[in-house]
């Protein structure tokens, strides 16, 4: 998929005078009305082509979303031109059915793209809503047009909003449910929620005019979230999902005077697991420990994987009792697994110690505990 896809589509539209010319439509007019949307979609497509941080499956699904938004914008353009000209009634009803059906499908596609391991059946409710929308063409159960060509809602007139709202609620729930404990992740989720809430509420205040900006709302929202995802991926360890070494060095430069404690954690026995059970078992051990660390800390504490089996937790503006409690919770949670780790920490009591000095002390304490562990089990490191 290349950005030239959009240019080719517009050239085809420009040549099809039978469709566009009859109601005063043209490709240039479409481009003029949707120029910002087109730029956002092109920018999104170019970014997807150049990214190296996402799985190919996710990239393909996002490309499908871009195409769907573009097609919907063309449908909206044609429908409203026909409506303004009081044109073909049946064609307008078909286009309305497509527009109403597209919103749940778009949100389902977003879920399908951003949710790991999401299966195709996420589209089943959207397909059922689409069937009802198209059944409404002859029956009017969802929408109809009166003698003057004005929209009339049927008994199920709120169905398109219910379907989209259901998907939006599930998407926000999923993002919150699967985010890490870092507070930085909640801001784009709230932005996403605000954007979709506006998509559900503004039609009741702006009327049909909101349809002109709906596609742009979806495109901008997804592009903003995509940028956030890329920024997060550059700061994340690909195996555990924890913050990586680069993020650690960047974060300790930010207000280092507020760092009151560093906790050094090192897994015990990773080499033995790799040698005896294979590296997949070692990867499972690391991801299990990472989950234990996240469960043990609060959102304001940041957890980093800085080496193969080495982790650091940065604590800011906390009393020493809190640091001791974190270490105790880690030991307790890890003890529920088949793995173990050694922990050491350094607490700064306001004497203005450098972060490097604190790390040396926490590492020293951690390695002291590790020596005790291997002495206790009677094995050499």
Task: State the gist of this model.
This protein has 381 residues and is of the alpha+beta class. The protein folds into two domains: 4-235; 245-377, Reverse transcriptase/Diguanylate cyclase domain (Alpha-Beta Plaits, 2-Layer Sandwich), CATH 3.30.70.
Task: Describe the protein in words.
This protein is an alpha+beta fold and 381 residues long. The chain has 2 domains: 4-235; 245-377, Alpha-Beta Plaits (2-Layer Sandwich), CATH 3.30.70. It has 16 helices and 6 strands. It has a 4-stranded antiparallel sheet with strand order 4-5-3-6, with helices on both faces. A two-stranded antiparallel ribbon has the order 1-2. A hairpin with a 5-residue loop joins strand 1 (143-145) and strand 2 (151-153). The two termini are 52 Å apart. 31% of the residues are buried.
């Amino acid at each position: 998929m290349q950005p030239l896809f959009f240019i080719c589509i517009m050239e085809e539209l420009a040549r099809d005078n039978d469709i566009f010319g009859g109601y005063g439509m043209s490709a240039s007019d479409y481009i003029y009305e949707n120029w910002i949307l087109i730029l956002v979609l092109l920018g999104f497509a170019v970014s997807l082509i150049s990214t190296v941080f996402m799985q190919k499956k996710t990239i393909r699904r996002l490309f499908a979303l871009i195409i769907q938004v573009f097609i919907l914008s063309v449908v909206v353009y044609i429908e409203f031109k026909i409506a303004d000209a009081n044109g073909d009634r049946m064609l307008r009803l078909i286009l309305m059915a497509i527009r109403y059906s597209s919103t749940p499908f778009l949100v389902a596609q977003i879920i399908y793209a951003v949710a790991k391991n999401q299966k195709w059946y996420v589209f089943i409710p959207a397909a059922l809503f689409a069937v009802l929308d198209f059944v409404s063409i002859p029956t009017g159960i969802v929408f109809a047009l009166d003698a003057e060509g004005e929209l009339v809602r049927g008994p199920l007139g709120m169905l398109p909003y219910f379907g989209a709202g259901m998907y939006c609620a599930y998407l926000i729930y999923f993002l919150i449910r699967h985010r890490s404990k870092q507070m930085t992740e909640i801001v784009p989720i709230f932005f996403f929620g605000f954007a979709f809430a506006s998509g559900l509420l503004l039609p009741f205040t702006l009327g049909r005019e909101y349809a002109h900006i709906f596609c742009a709302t979806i495109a901008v929202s997804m592009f903003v979230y995509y940028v956030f995802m890329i920024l997060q991926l550059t700061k994340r360890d690909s195996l555990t999902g924890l913050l990586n070494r680069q993020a650690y060095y960047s974060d300790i430069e930010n207000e280092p005077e507020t760092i009151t404690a560093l906790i050094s954690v090192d897994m015990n026995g990773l080499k033995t697991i790799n040698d005896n059970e294979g590296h997949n078992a070692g990867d499972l051990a690391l991801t299990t420990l990472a989950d234990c660390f996240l469960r043990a800390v609060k959102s304001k504490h940041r957890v980093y994987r800085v080496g193969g089996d080495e982790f650091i937790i940065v604590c800011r503006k906390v009393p020493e009792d809190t640091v001791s409690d974190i270490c105790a919770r880690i030991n307790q949670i890890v003890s529920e697994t088949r793995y173990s780790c050694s922990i050491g920490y350094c607490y700064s009591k306001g004497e203005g110690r450098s972060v490097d000095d604190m790390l040396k002390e926490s590492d020293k304490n951690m390695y002291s505990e590790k020596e005790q562990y291997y002495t206790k089990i009677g094995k050499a490191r």
